[in-house]
Amino acid sequence: MKTKICIYMPDFGQDYSRQMKDLEEAGFEVVWKKEHAQTQDPKILIEDVKGYNCVVAASENWGSVSLEGVSDSLKLIARHGVGVDNIDILYATKKGIAVTSAPGQLSLSVAEAALALALSCIRRVTKYDREIRGGLYRSVMTSCLSGKTFGLLGFGAIAQELARLLQPFHCRLLAYDVFFNPEVADGLNVEMVGLDTLCRESDVISLHIPCNDETQGMINAEFLNKMKSTAFLVNTSRGGVIVEEDLYEALEAGVIAGAGLDVFAAEHTEQRSILFTCENAVLNPHSAANTREALGAIMDCCVRSIKAFFAGEEPFGLLNPDYKKYVC
Q1: Backbone angles phi, psi at 189, to 5 degrees
Q2: pLDDT score for 277
Q3: Sign of the dihedral defined by the CA atoms of residues 98, 103, 106, 111, in that order
Q4: Domains 4-103+290-326 and 107-283 share a fold
Q5: Is the pTM higher than 0.85?
Q6: How far apart (Å, rounded) are the C-alpha atoms in residues 57 and 71?
Q7: Which residues form the catalytic set?
Q8: CA–CA dist 173, 153 (Å, integer)
Q9: Averaged pLDDT of the chain
Q10: CA-CA distances (angstroms) from residue 12 to 9, 289, 291?
Q11: 107-283 topology per CATH
């Protein structure tokens, strides 16, 4: 009997035919289920994925209920991306399910999106677009990004790529990370600073942190009140790191000048973020990584991990090696 793989990714117009053919030629049965991709309903997930041995996961809800419902057959979740806050890795481990991610494959795409959001905020690109389409043809004073102080909260692969993209802008680059890499920072002329300094001195702060117990709600009223009133906040990481009510109040009251947001606390649900009404916020639908180049590279990484795993080898990007203790 063939090993069954379910690609549970939304259809953004990407072409996975080459990767699917690669898996099929290696002896796997592959199905791309698009209809319910990114669902947060465990019942739908269980109905769709039960009986499959592997799933290529997007941002759907792989909590304990979903995992329990498919644990009889599921052996591997290959996360199509880096963030795994939608996967209960501890529960997956206890059910003997391996979880992999694809680090480093989307760094450039997300870094470009963060830069685009920052520039759009600073130069009022989307606001001008809305106004001119509505009949208001006017220009007001804006600022250049060049020469400003740009803060990176988190200094992993995406933030480092963003620092490279910022080199021609001759910004002063600041970064805060509990696991700071001084050698990489020195090569990119990035200053390691404390969190308070990052808040007080940055004209733009771009968030590049995971959402976990330590970072959940980290960007709150206290944080925002330390920022310059002329500063902008950019988030291409996870919506849960921001207290959205606090950011809404800060944007409405002019505590900060604006925000560029690709992610929100609640996504793929009928619940609308309070931030959707903010005129000084540039909003994207969690699309920073969705380029042909990035999605193709991530799927290539998933294919390599899948083939290695089912060949009895340790797959690239394995997040829970302890799963082996619980395999029956």
Answers
A1: 55, 45
A2: 95
A3: positive
A4: yes
A5: yes
A6: 15
A7: 238, 267, 286
A8: 11
A9: 95
A10: 9, 11, 9
A11: Rossmann fold (3.40.50)
The band of 17, judged by pLDDT with boundaries at 50, 70 and 90, is very high
Per-residue pLDDT band at 52 (split at 50, 70, 90): very high
Q: Using one digit for the tens of pLDDT, what is the confidence trace for 76-108?
A: 999 999 889 899 999 999 999 999 999 889 999
> How far are the Cα atoms of 49, 107, 207, 268, 313 from residue 102, in angstroms, in the given order?
21, 11, 20, 22, 17
Backbone torsions φ then ψ of 298, nearest 5 degrees: -65, -40
Contact 154, 165 (CB under 8 A): no
Token pair 């001195």 is found at 201
Sorting pLDDT into bands at 50, 70 and 90, what band is 180? confident
pLDDT at 269 over 90: no
Taking residues 16-42, what's their average pLDDT?
A: 94
Domain 4-103+290-326 has CATH 3.40.50.720: yes
Q: Where are the domains of the chain?
A: 4-103+290-326, 107-283
Q: Is the pLDDT of residue 177 over 90?
A: yes
Residue 196 backbone dihedrals phi, psi, to 5 degrees? -65, -40
Q: Please, which residues bridge with residue 31 across strands?
A: 6
Nearest to 27 by CA among 1, 9, 6, 50: 1
